[in-house]
Structures are given as C-alpha cells and as structure tokens.
Write a structure and sequence with these properties.
The protein is α/β, with parallel strands linked by helices. It has 13 helices and seven strands. The protein has two domains: 183 residues, Rossmann fold, CATH 3.40.50.300; 105 residues, GI Alpha 1, domain 2-like (Orthogonal Bundle).
Amino acid sequence: MGCTQSHEDSEAKARNAEIEEQLKRDRQNMAREIKMLLLGAGESGKSTVLKQMRLIYNKPYDAEERDSYREIVYSNTVQSMRVLLEGVVAMGLDISSANQAHYNLILAAPALIEGDRFPPSLANAIKGLWQDEGVREAFSRRNELQLNDSAPYYFDAITRLANPAYVPTDQDILRARVKTTGITETHFQIGELKYKLFDVGGQRSERRKWLGVFENVTALVFLIAISEYDQMLYEDETVNRMTEAMTLFESVANSRWFIKTSIILFLNKIDLFRAKLPHSPLANTFPEYKGGANYDAACAFLLEKFVALNQNPSKSIYAVTLHRRHRHARACVRRFCCSRRYYPGQLARVRSSLVLGECRACRSLPASP
C-alpha cells in the first residue's frame, strides 16, 4: 500500500514538474513575442509598411505572388490616369486634339485590367496623355483629386510595364494600392523576438473592427500620411485628411482599451511632404502655423498637434519619421520630438519593433497639460 502511494506521489510530482516547466517555457515565449496593432486613416501607407517589413525580415515575393500583382499594377496605372482625366474636365482644362482618342480610350477602359500583358493601346494612350499639358496641369493640382501617390511612378515606367516579359519588381509591389478590408496578420522575427503585426482597414467603414479586439497588444503603431494636409477624404470630400487623422488618433489614444498601451506615431510620406510645402502652404489648412515652408518647423507643428490630443500623462508616445531612400524605406526619430527624459530601455524596443531602419535617438513625448 505504502509503495503504491509513494509511486503515485512520484508520478504526480513528475507531472506537476512537467506542467510547471511547460508553463515556464510558455511565459518565456510570450515574453519574446511582441504584438503590435497598425492603425491609421485610409491612404496612410499601412499596407506599404507591412510589405516593406516582409521584404526585409520575412521572405521575398515568389514568382506566383509577383504574377498576382501584375494586374493590380496595370489597374492602378489606368485608374490613376482616369482620375487625372476626370480632373482635367472638373478643372475646366483642355486635352490636346492629338490626345483626344487616347482620352476616350482611357475613359472607356474597364476598372480591372486583366491578362498577362498591359494592353499596348492603353500603354500608348498613357504615354501620350502623360505628356499632355492639360494632364500635367491637373497633376500639379493633384491635392484636389483622389489620386494614388504611385501615379507618376507608374506613368514614368509605362514602357517597362508594357513589356510582354514584365514581372513586378519589389518597388512596383510596394507602390501597388489595394484597399485593406478586414484584419491581416504579419509575422516576422528579429533575433530572439517574435513580432505579430496586425493591420486593419483605415476607411471609416473598417474602424469598428479595431477597438476591443486588440486590448493586450504591446504597442500601437499609428501611421500619419503627413503629406496629406491639403487633401480631402475619399469617403467624404468635405473633410480634410489630416483633420480626420487627428480625430481618429484622439479616439485611439484615449480609448479605454489602450490606456496602458504605448503609441508610436509614424510620420509617413515625408518625402512628399517636403516637396509639397513650398507650393502648398501648411497655413492654408492650419492658419495658426507660422513656420512657412520650413520642413522641421512644419513637422514639429503637426506632431505637437497630435501629441496634444493625448489626455493620459502616463502614456508613452514616440514619434518616428519614415521616408524612402534608395531601395528600402528608412525610419528615424526626429530630434525635435523630445522631452527632458530618455528611455533607453524603450528605445531598444521601439528600434527593434519598427525594424525599417535607423532609429538613432528616441525620446518620450509628454502628454498635453
């Protein structure tokens, strides 16, 4: 009897030890797993950031995936030219008589361009129209239109896109625009840390899926298309995109679901922002801004506008600027985004979790008074 009891006790202890060891391993794995929620208004560039992360830290696109992007690139290119042509009409501009047939062809083209090759007639039409003075004038006023940022890139590459042997490059894929619906999840690993990055649609109709679903994420990455300060929403052309982004950020930063969650403000499309400032004054949208076309002053002004929306003094907010440099995007924290305190431990986490480049210095931003 005693031997039987002793044997059962030994088995129970062994099982308990095994369970404890498994729990310990699970806790260690959880400690090495960082969950991040990628948020932002529509057109803020969330999907592009995800694709960039995949290319750098996960795996390249295989031949089948590249083939699947071919029709997307074709359709984006034709649709962008259609938007410009509609802008020509709305702005009271003219198309040259030499391009009238091209104009009619683009407007009659289907929304989805299917097939393994860019139709030569459409390629020739885009090539001719892109040189048209009326189209160029409409493009110079593109902030009045719902035009993809990738439009000039694809127009300039039209000969390459129309080549029968065309295969989308990494850059073509990064610039391809597909509306995000629902929730997508991207996994990648850096050293011992495993990252799960969740992306949800930025359009108004998708936002109800955000709150409450990711209460326990490590951090929120909120993307701001900083170049869109003079543009209107796709869904409502009476609402400024930057104003909409601020409204959205305020609701997220002060949500009861994310009270203790750190926020990384990702200032995206700053290359476009820098180029636009001299021609489209920031003061037209924000009359209180007095910094003229000074890039650093404009960035600091917009950043402070967002930070001031945070009502929680204990919340950590970090600011990072993202721009294209050669093949890859680069990320760095601007020196103007700072308070009196350094957080070297948090810097390591922010640097590793952003993973797009060189966060040389990261400082926590204060909450609004």
